[in-house]
Write a structure and sequence with these properties.
It is built from five helices and 16 strands. The protein is α+β, with helices and mostly antiparallel strands.
Length: 280
Amino acid sequence: MITGLDHVLVVCPSADDAENAYCALLGREPDWRSSDPGGSATVIFQLENTALEIMSPIGGGPLARRLHAMIEQDGPGLKSLIFSSNDLADDRATFDRRGLRPDEIVPGESTDPSSGRARYWSRMRLDDAGTHGVRIFALARKQPDPMVYRPGNAGIVSGLDHVVINTANPDRATALYGARLGLRLALDRSNPDWDMRLMFFRLGGLTIELAHKLSAGPGNQPDKLWGLSWKVPDIEAAHARLLSRNFAVTSIRPGRRAGTKVFSVRDGTLNIPTLILGDA
């Protein structure tokens, strides 16, 4: 079954530039660097409850061509959700019965040249039509995985609080993430003052948030990965740190969830709407 969100994937023209941007944003160094002979450079930040993978095209291989096409279509930004699974074969059979048409399970590996360490995994991709346009994979890491979370000071990002997906059809989205993927629907709230219906699916210490604009009514347009909300132990320290790095940030304000404070980051995020969240 799906047990969490293994990582989110960001695609951009330059992994080096993105690494610099997210080192500054998250306040931490990458935990993994690698390249793929098919034409990609990868940087990964391992967090407490998920990971951030940044990928860029290099050369002219088949993977590089696919990455270039993704950037040309929608620009750089958030491109995929990769869920963690403790039994890929069983999940594949379940998803096939539920009409998600998963690809075959394929192995993967990478080596970090700076350390010589290697990682291994297996994964499958679900059909984009079945996931309403959001690229979704399920992945199982081979254990022990050398990429582990390293705690830091209170002003750096420790984990992901939630991923935001904009949906044109909330009932369709609820059926996908709840009934077909098997995630737990924790809250379904409509607020006319915000002109929004928000649905929160919780797993592995974070939330997949589906957002629908009430005034638009239900439609058949594809769902879109939209934004990320990062967690910090000390929001005042994180705010001061980002100001010192010349990020454009809003002032700290009360969060919509009781007992939280948040602020928005306006630049340096690779076109990803970004919120920083901490306890009040």
